Amino acid sequence: MKIYLTAAVTALFFSTGCSQKTENVVPGVSGESSAVVLTDSAKVVAEKKRASELEKGKLPKPYDPKENAEEKISGLVKKAQAENKNIILQAGGNWCIWCLRFNNFIQTTPELKKTVDDNYLYYHLNYSPENKNEKIFGQYGNPGEKFGYPVFIILDKNGKLIHTQDSAVLEDGKGYSVEKVLDFLNGWKPKA
User: Fold this and answer.
1) Is pLDDT above 50 for 174?
2) Can you tell me the distance from the alpha carbon of 182 to that of 185, in angstroms, rounded to the nearest whole number?
C-alpha cells in the first residue's frame, strides 16, 4: 500500500509540474525578467502592425478582387500588340503592404513611371481571399507560392511569359531601390 501511495504522489507531482506552459520561457532569462521581455516583444509587434495598418490606410488600393483578370489580360495583350509594349502583371493584393508600397513607388517616382509608361502596360493581378485568380496564377506557375507578394510576371506583347521577378531583390530597407527597379524594368522592356 505504501508503494502505491508513493507512486501516486510522485505521479501527481510530475503531472502537475509537466502541465505548466514552458513555451514562453526565454533562455537565460528567468522570473519577472522573462515576462518583461515577452511583454516588450509583444508591444513591439503590436506597434509594428499598427504602423503598417496606418501606412496601408494612406496608400492607394490598386487591386480589384471583382475584376475578371482573364478578360483584362486578354484585352491588354491586344493593346500591347498595337502599341508594341510588354505587360507587367504585379501580383498581390490590397492586404499586402509591400504591394501597395511598390505601386506607390512606381507612381510617385517620375523616372520609373516614365519607363513603365513608355514600355509596358501595367496590371495589378489580384490575389486575395475574395478572389485568388487560381486559373491565371496556374498559367504562370503560381509564382506567389514561390516568392510571396508582390511578384512580377512579365509578358511579351503576345501574352507569352518571358520573366518572373521576385520583389525581394528590389527592396531597400522598408522600401524599394530606384536603381534596382530601373535595372529590372530596362532589362525586360520590348526590343526596339
Assistant:
1) yes
2) 5
Rounded to the nearest angstrom, the gap between the alpha carbon of residue 113 and the centroid of all alpha carbons in its chain is 22
Architecture per CATH, domain 69-187, reads as 3-Layer(aba) Sandwich (3.40)
- Which long-range contacts does 177-181 make (Cβ < 8 Å, 24+ apart)? 178/109, 178/111, 178/112, 181/105, 181/106, 181/112
Look up residue 134 and give its three cell numbers. 487560381
**Cα 143 from Cα 133, distance rounded (Å):** 12
pTM beyond 0.70: yes
Tens of pLDDT, residue by residue over 62-109, are: 999 999 999 999 999 999 999 999 999 999 999 999 999 999 999 999
Q: Compute how many other C-beta atoms are within 10 angstroms of the C-beta atom of residue 128.
A: 15
Chain segment 3-42, per-residue pLDDT in tens: 443 444 344 333 333 333 334 444 444 555 555 555 678 8
For the chain, give every domain's residue range: 26-58, 69-187
Helix (H, G, I), strand (E, B) or coil at 151: strand
